[in-house]
Amino acid sequence: MEQVGAAALPVIVGLIVLFGFFKGVDVFDSFLAGAKEGLHTSMNLLPTLIGLIMAVTMVRASGLLDLLCALAEPLTQAVGVSPELAPLAVLRPISGSGSSAYTLSLLQRFGPDSPTGKIASVLASSTETTFYAVTVYFGACQAKKLRYTIPAALLGDMTAVVLSVLTVRLWG
Questions:
Q1: Which listed residue, 5, 130, 150, 165, has the most CB atoms within 10 A of its CB?
Q2: Listed residue (153, 142, 114) closest to 45, CA to CA
Q3: CA 92 – CA 99 distance, rounded (Å)
Q4: 25: alpha, beta or left, given left = phi > 0 and alpha = psi -120 to 50?
Q5: First-last CA distance in the chain
Q6: Separation between Cα atoms, residue 61 and residue 66, nearest integer Å
Q7: Cβ neighbours of 134 (radius 10 Å)
Q8: For 56-108, how does the pLDDT look when each residue is reduced to its tens digit (9 = 90+)?
């Protein structure tokens, strides 16, 4: 089975090249044009992504993440959820790699079958790295006005937190 997966990409690329050949498309020139456009898009996104990475680093280093988690702790205790889930809920919209590492540490500490592990798994898989997605998508089209995008996306993230807890409580 592993060999099938390893062969899939070369087979797909070969089929695309053959299809282009039979259709009379200059495949290599098309590839070069696409690569050039992709490189141009990457260069346009680079300053925005550097700014996002810097902002995430500042949020972590400044202690703002710890402050937000401390503010959320009474709420987590009131609903009977482990306070260790608050950092995941705060971190997930900001940093995908940071939230993945934190989810892994929760699973190692509490176990994947614990209520905390289940909620962490559902939460990590049902939310988006909001600020990264907005940075990439709006940066690619060079949009400057986000209007309702961030509030709506964060509302979606908060809804995912609530529904993650409810889902695990009802069916977990």
A1: 165
A2: 142
A3: 5
A4: beta
A5: 32
A6: 10
A7: 19
A8: 788 778 988 788 888 888 888 888 889 989 989 988 998 888 888 889 999 99
Q: How far from the centroid of its chain's Cα atoms is residue 99's Cα? A: 9
Name the residue among 33, 54, 55, 43 with its Cα closest to residue 140.
43
Residue closest to 136 by CA, chosen among 122, 124, 121, 153: 153
> Exposed, middle or buried: residue 49 (CB in 10 Å: 0-12, 13-18, 19+)?
middle
Question: Taking the model in full, what pTM does it have?
Answer: 0.71
Q: Two tokens at 33?
A: 């044009």
7-29 pLDDT, tens digit each: 888 999 899 989 998 999 998 99
